[in-house]
Amino acid sequence: MKNIVLFGAPGCGKGTQAQRLRDHYGIDHVSTGEVIREHIRRGTELGRSMETCIAQGKLVPDEVVIGMIGDYVVTHKEGAGCIFDGFPRTTVQAEAFDGMLTGHGLKVDVMIDIQVPEEELVRRILLRGKESGRTDDASEEVVRGRLEVYRAQTAVVSDFYAAQGKYAVVDGMGTMEEVFERIVAVIDGLKK
Ligand code: AMP
After folding, report:
1. Does pTM top 0.70 for this prediction?
2. What is the pLDDT along the chain (192 residues), one digit of tens a residue?
3. Span from the CA of 54 to the centroid of ligand 1 (angstroms)
4. Residue 10: which residues within 8 A CB-CB, separation 6 or more?
5. 155 C-alpha vs ligand 1 centroid, how far in Å?
6. Which is the closest atom of ligand 1 to the Cα of 89?
7. Which residue lies with its CA nearest to atom 11 of ligand 1?
8. Which atom of ligand 1 approaches the CA of 61 most closely?
9. What are the counts of helices (DSSP H) followed by strands (DSSP E) for the chain?
């Protein structure tokens, strides 16, 4: 099972690239943001408890996402691998993730950080908000708040993987195709 963590600030293109990588490598794709939005759409109790966090652009509690990913790992541990998109987003999540994978004889192979300058991120997210109707993409204030959350809580997660020699940076500017090729070059360069 090849496990790839796709990393980067909101708007860097993680979701789009994750879907293409899923098709290219025939492995799974899990987006914690999508799982949470699905809970909200279905009106589950968990969904209702997370609605305010999402709307305000804050992270949902670690134990909630750790539980979601824990369930996923248990049911997919025999699979070919997965692109984790939007998880882990805190060091607590990264440590818990390592623990659960190790418990099943699995590991993260690489974290790929897609880097895009901040003003471009804001531009892309506001554009996406117009098309997708995602409420947390619609207001510049919430978008800038999410980027601040990323800087304050999430960016450090890269240190966790860098310390294990599993961290790669990819330039997220250019066409979707160009960025895709850069990511594929990193994954294909991994030792089997
Ligand atoms: P995304 O679709 O990845 O941009 O995530 C949208 C929102 O879902 C985030 O702003 C958070 O509120 C929540 N979320 C997604 N993944 C996580 C995570 N790993 N930890 C905490 N909150 C998350």
Report:
1. yes
2. 589 999 999 999 999 999 999 999 999 999 999 999 999 999 999 999 999 999 999 999 999 999 999 999 999 999 989 999 999 999 999 999 999 999 999 999 999 999 999 999 999 999 999 998 888 999 999 999 999 999 999 999 999 999 999 999 999 999 999 999 999 999 999 976
3. 7
4. 121, 125, 143, 146, 147, 150
5. 14
6. 19
7. 59
8. 21
9. 9, 5
